[in-house]
Amino acid sequence: MTSDRAHHAPRPQPARPARPAPRPPDRPRRPHRVVVLALDGLLPFELGIPQRIFGRVRDERPGPLYEVVTCSVRPPGPVGTDADFAVLVENGPEALATADTVVVPSSYELGPVYEEGVLTEELTAALALVRPGTRLVAICTGGYVLAAAGYLDGRPATTHWASAEHFQRLFPKVRVDPDVLFVDDGDVLTSAGVAAGIDLCVHIVRRDHGTAVANDVARRTVVPPHRDGGQAQYIERPVPDPQQSSTTNARAWALDRLQEPIQLRDMAAQESMSVRTFTRRFREEAGVSPGQWLTGQRVERARHLLESTDLSVDQVARDAGFGTAQSMRQHLMATLGVTPTAYRRTFRTELSTACGQ
User: Fold this and answer.
1) Whole-angstrom Cα distance, residue 23 to residue 250?
2) Which of 172, 165, 203 is nearest to 186 (CA)?
């Protein structure tokens, strides 16, 4: 007698899945090409910003995200700086034709660009090589070059606060905002002076690749991923020269007691003047009313205390004469465009991570 097992048909075996074909290696991606235009009289610090920021950008995929190339308006060779050395630039203007983004740092030798708002023949020929649709970026007074070329006509832009008024007079078609650190107008971006070029380049990385990548670059560069406020917080506003002033004693008296309530009649009494006469003289000499001047001095006192002490915001407000933290916050926002806490964080950031290499 045979076993029942012998009569059973063999159980069909499931088909083995086909072995997946080996995944082809990722194609190397073409990095975004940033071409930096080095002009005579350039500031070496600003020339190095694009390389320092874009040259360090990485993500989880292999290969760099940006390629940074420096070129001149002339054939390869030395380009003068505002320092006691020149830089050797190995690319001529033809590199501009290969750019996805062109960056124009500032220069102290812009000649007719700065004086008359017109391009030199070399600059005209060089910028003619830039392909339509290329993103244009200016750092500080590099914006003069973009404006002289007509790229900023009818558009918002910024530059160093010390040049903003001259920039606006020279290029009336540009909508100049002197208070911000940078302006992003899509395919044309401009920054304020010097370190604001770092803010702008980090912003571009954030725009291109997201916050995580931009924050990583900021940490490696040991800079804030984002700075609150605008240029106003970096403008020093000294007390007007009191020489030959008839309100000098009143100002000195007020500065010694900023933390106290100060009445206009008390200031006038220091000069033995009527309130009306004192107010008129004060405005003639200081350019502002006594009340505006007093608020300005309290803002400066608050800035100093926020930068140099560990006093609480409430205590800073009292010592600067604002009385309450809310009052001080309102005045700092109106004057500097930034809150007391954000101002202190900007100027007193304690780095808790190792410096990136």
Assistant:
1) 81
2) 203
